[in-house]
Amino acid sequence: MKYLLLIYNCDRPEPGDPRFEDALARVNAFADECRRRGALVAGDPLTNDDAATTVAVRNGRTLITDGPFVETREHLGGYYVLDCADLDEALELAALCPMADVGTIEVRPLVHVPGVDHKPV
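The structure corresponding to this sequence follows.
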């Protein structure tokens, strides 16, 4: 079963910050553990909210807005897609994610919809 781990409100030091090397090592160790279990499908950090663009279509008109769709205090900083045996394993890995120490990890099962094809080319 695939699960999406959404990483909220994490402090992500940038290169040049004295905390960067330690944070990078912790993130890579987490990815290695997910790979060791055969669970890692994908994962990436996201840019800040101010780089987001929202697209909506209403009455045939495309509406483009700078920024996230809703005003929120929560900052979505990144994600992982994991293929786990069950929810318990997904929650265990979420707790091992180094960003759980400083932010929040939301775990959601991905839904398989028959007929929907999202496979890469």
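Strands lie at 2-8, 40-45, 53-58, 61-66, 76-83, 104-109.
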